[in-house]
Amino acid sequence: xxxxxxxxxxxxxxxxxxxxxxxxxxxxxxxxxxxxxxxxxxxxxxxxxxxxxxxxxxxxxxxxxxxxxxxxxxxxxxxxxxxxxxxxxxxxxxxxxxxxxxxxxxxxxxxxxxxxxxxxxxxxxxxxxxxxxxxxxxxxxxxxxxxxxxxxxxxxxxxxxxxxxxxxxxxxxxxxxxxxxxxxxxxxxxxxxxxxxxxxxxxxxxxxxxxxxxxxxxxxxxxxxxxxxxxxxxxxxxxxxxxxxxxxxxxxxxxxxxxxxxxxxxxxxxxxxxxxxxxxxxxxxxxxxxxxxxxxxxxxxxxxxxxxxxxxxxxxxxxxxxxxxxxxxxxxxxxxxxxxxxxxxxxxxxxxxxxxxxxxxxxxxxxxxxxxxx
Length: 374
Ligand SMILES: [Zn+2]
What we know:
Bound molecules: zinc ion
Number of domains: 3
Radius of gyration: 25 Å
C-alpha cells in the first residue's frame, strides 16, 4: 500500500523537456527568456502540487488503514528552518493544513502511519491549540497551507493579470506542457490500481492498441480515462468480476471495497464522457437465480443495478443465453471504441440506471424481457 502511495510517481521528471519547449517558444518570438529559476519554480511547484493532490485523495481513501501521517523534512543544509520545525509532527489523515509542499521547491514529504505506529510517538508530536497556531504563523507562504492547488491557481491567475503579452503567452505554453505532465501523473496513478502481476501485460496491450488510444482522445477522454475503461473490459485481470462481487455478493479476490468504490467513481467519470447509445441494447444472461428471473418476468417491476452493467448494441452477440433483456436505453454509454474486444459492441449501463419491465415472453428455450429505462 505504501509503495502504491509513494511509488511510481516521480516528481520533476520531464522538466528538461518543459524547459526546452519554453526556450524554443522564446526563441521563436524573439523574446527575453524568463530566468531558468522562474520557469523551474512554476513547473516544479505545479507538478509537486498535482502530486500532493493525488496523494491526499488516496490517503483519504485508505484512512481506515492509515489514520495518521507524519511530516518529514529532508534535514540537510538547504532545508528551511520553518519546515524543519514541522519534522516528525503527526496529523490525522484528512487534516492537511501542513501537508507538503509548503512552499516553492519544498522537498518535504508525508509518511503514512497506522494507528499503532502513531501510538508509539509521544503526545507532543501531535500539535494542537497554541502549538499548532505557532506552526501556522511560522509558515512563510500561507497560500500553500490547506487546499493548496486552488490557492496556487489563484496566485498564477494574479501573476497572469499583471503580466505583459509575451509573458502571458509563455505561461499559457507552460501550462500546456504542465497539463500534459499532470495527465501523465494521472495515468501513472491509474496504473497503480492494478496488481503487479497484471499491470505489465495490460499496459503493453493498451499502449500497442492504437485504435483504443485514438478513439479515447477523440472522445475527449484523458489517457487515464481511456486506460481505466480499457482495463475494465480486460476480463483477465479480474476487475469486472470483483466489481460484480462488490454489488451482488461473493468474496472479493483482489481489491478491497474502498479501492473498488474509488475505481467505480473514476470509471463513471470516464465513461460519462462517451456518447450515449440511442435505441436498443441487449443484456444476455445465463444461470440466473430463480428469484431474479421472477423479477424480470413481473410486468412493471423496476430494477436498479448498483454496479456497471455490460450490454451489447449487437443483436447477434451472446444471443443464445437463457435470458435476454432487450433494453430501450436512454443513458447507456457506447464503450465499443475503447474496449479491449470491439467485437462485443459493448455499451455500459451506469451505476444506478433504473429499468422497468415492459413485457416478457418465452421464445423457444429463451426468456426474452423487454425493458425501458426510466
Ligand atoms: Zn519543505
